[in-house]
Structure formats: structure tokens, C-alpha cells
Amino acid sequence: MVNVTSVVGLPERALLEGSPAAMGCDALVVVTPSPVAAHVEALGAEIQGAIAGAAKLDAALGGKCAPVVLAVQGVPGGRLVVAPMSALQEETDDVRSVAEAAAAAMTRAVAAGARRPLLFVRAPADPRFARAVEVATLAVLGTQWAALEARESEHAPSPAEAVAVLGLSEARARELAAIEVGRALCRDITAGDPERMAPRRVAELCEAAFARTGVGVKVERNVEDYPLLSAVARASRVVERHKPCVVRLDYRPKGEIKRTVLLAGKGVTYDTGGADLKTDGHMAGMSRDKGGAGAVAGVVRAAAALGLEGVRVVGILGLVRNSVGEESFVSDEVIRSRAGVRVRIGNTDAEGRLVLADLLAVARELATAGAVDPVVFSVATLTGHVYRAHGPYVGALSNGAGRKEIARLAEVGEQWAEPFEHVRPRREDYALIAPRTPAEDVVSANRLASVNTPRGHQFPFAFMDVASGMKGSALPFTHLDIGGVVCEGADWQFGRPTGTPVTSFIGYLKGGASEA
Fold it and tell me: Coiled-coil segments, which residues (predicted)?
């Protein structure tokens, strides 16, 4: 299992006062708006002077630039790593700048030889940056994750042993470390190669990750009760290790349960496109198509690590490989969903919405079977269109009852460097998936890829709403398409998984932005 770099919170004056915990570090990492020298008064005149002197020699330090390493006597380890941001005065600036600068600075500090860096962060006194120190801490921790296969083969670089953060309370440091445990599990699942993270090996990882956490883990290897998911998996069943499964994770807090959050995660461990085979090199990186399942598992794991009170969190992971072969499901088939809705198959590369429709039907069943104040979310790397439409933002859609929930989640996401773009489903979305003959109740997709279809990431919401039996229900339902944010730089093949939106969900579960 992953070992998360430990984080220690220290009073902001710890360095000035010569605290052993601060002086025992081996680098001071400074992340501030530019000009840096104007924001480091709390570090003392000597450090402020050293930065000002360096800026006279290197004009780049007067504005945003790559982190630089300075030799400064009196700072921990004699290393001062400075990561200037822009002035952060533009209306469009947000806390992602802090996360990016902190990650770059930590990477540079470790490359310089630091193993116990001390982090100092400054940001404008603006609500947009209210969580700057915590966001920077999570960004720093995230840089120290290495892929599961690299760790298991003992080829992973040595991570930092610990990170100390000035101005962070010890209690808050423990909470951030708990969130990082969930994000690390999310990354392990998302980044795992198609064999290391084949469906049932993801299930095994979940069983290990949730052992002794109090979270209930149920692995369903017979998936006949999930007809759409089973159809996606049909060609994979001829290979034992590729067979599908559904994993249910159930976190029940101690004490009274005041609400229930049900999360359905798409876990397509490899997506060939099926009979609508991906061509022209578009198959590379399709092992990351399980990022939704990774995110859901990460949320539940973080909730358990934090011991969240008052909220039950149920994660449902649909783990399946969309293979191509003699048994492939094909366009024009009509298959009844778990909810009993007759689905006419369109493009078989639109498999994720089929998997989610059956999982959402389960969530609806659980919600209507006595769950306390239930809400439902689906999380998936569902479309390429979401990146074309929104770039590096989570694409969010909800039914009428879910708009209040997505508004709260989006508010949290803004503060935690995981911003959302929220759009409404429209009549055109339901028109596109409407039945064309008496043989079906709904059509899964047209013949085109999502990127070539108007409203290509919006109309799948309409399909899932209908095929899951959710439509017309008063149950709040929100869908999050993370296709554009699952990996850094939208590089599905080589980009580091981001862990988005685990942190936002934890803030949401705790009660919103003010309580995140």
C-alpha cells in the first residue's frame, strides 16, 4: 500500500523563534505572490534581505518564474527554495496558482536533496485564497506519490520523509494527511496499467485498502443483475483475469446518520472502444478510463480516515473491461437496464454511461430503501467532449433537485483548486436519446464520438437519467465528468493522476466551503 509523506503543522513564528521542529528541516520552501520580498516579513529581515538581494541579481525573481534554489545561511539545511507566483491581482486568478507553484517548488526542493522541507505560503487576503496554505500542502504531498507499479518493482524515487508547514495547525495537518490517503488510493486505481488494475485486481486493492477501516466492502463477481454493465463486459469474459465485478464500499459513521451520499464510479479498466474500435492511436491512455471509480474509492477512504460524522457514504464501483472480440456487444442491440428500461445501443465506445446507468439504478434502490436524506452522484471520465467544451474543469450536470448540491460542491471546489463548470441539461439532450421505434425506450448514443456531437458531454446525463429510472424522481442526482481533469495536462497516457475531485467531496461532506 502507499505510504503518504507525513505532514507536520507548525506555528508561523516557529522559524523566527528557532523551534527545533522548524530548524530540524533541511530546506525552506517559500511560495508567495511577486514580488516575493514584499511577502516574507514573517520570516525575518535576514531571509527577506537574501531574497531581495537575489532579485537584484536575477530579474526573473521579480515576477512569476520557475523555482530557484539559493544558498542562505541560517535557514534549515542552508537551502532556500523560492517559487514566485504572479501578483495574483487579476479577477481570473484563483488558488490553482498556489497549488502549481507549491508543487513545482516541492519537486525542486526534493531534486536539490531535501527530505524534510519546511513550507511557507502567502496569498492575497481574498476569499478565493482562503485555503491557500491547505491547498499548497496537498499539492506538495501529491508530488511525492509514485505509481503503484514503480513502488512494487522498487523503481520509485525516494519521497520526502515529511513536510512541515508554517501556519498550519496540527489538527489540520492530520486532516490533510487523511485526505491525501484517499487521493493516493484514487491515483493508484486510476494510473494502474490494464493488467495490474484489471477489474478484480482493483477489487483486491480495495479489500486491502479498506481492511481495518470499518468500511464494509462487498465484491459482486456475478454481475448478471447489471445487464448493461454485463453487455460491456461480454467480450472480456473469455479471459479470466478480465472478468467484471462490482464493488460496494459502505462507510457508516459512529452515532446518528443525518444524510446519505451515494457515489457511482465508472471503472472501465481498459477501453478499446469495443466493436466501435478506437483507431488512429486514440487507444493509448485508455487504462485511465477508471478514474471515476478511483475517485469514488478515494472519497470513501478519506472519509474513513477522517472519521467523518453524521454522513453515510456509499461507493459503487463498476469495474469492467470494454474489450473487442467475437462476443462484443454491438450497435443496434436492445438491452434492458437494471431499471427495466429498454436501451438501444448506439456507438459501443459510449460504454461508460451504460455502466453508470446500472450503478445508478442500485443507488436509487438504496436511496428509496430507507436511506436518510439521500443524494446521488456519478463520477466518470465519460467524454472527450467535456475537455473540448470546458478544458481543465470538472463538467457538472444535475437534475432540478440536485442543483443545490452541485452549487455547494462547486463552491468548495473553487476554494480547493478543483473548479467546476456547471451546466443544465436541456430538452435537446433528451431529444437526442429519445426512442426512434417501439422496440426501445431510450437510445444510448448516436454513431459519432462525443467530441463530434453537439452537447456531447451533456446528453449522456439525459441517457443515464432515463436508463437508471431516475427521471421524474425527487431524488437529487448530479453527474461529474472528470475527463478533462483526471490527469495533469489532460495527458491520459503519461500525466500524473490529479485525485480530483476527492478533496472537494470531503469539503462537501463536511458541510460546505466554510467547514471544508
Answer: none
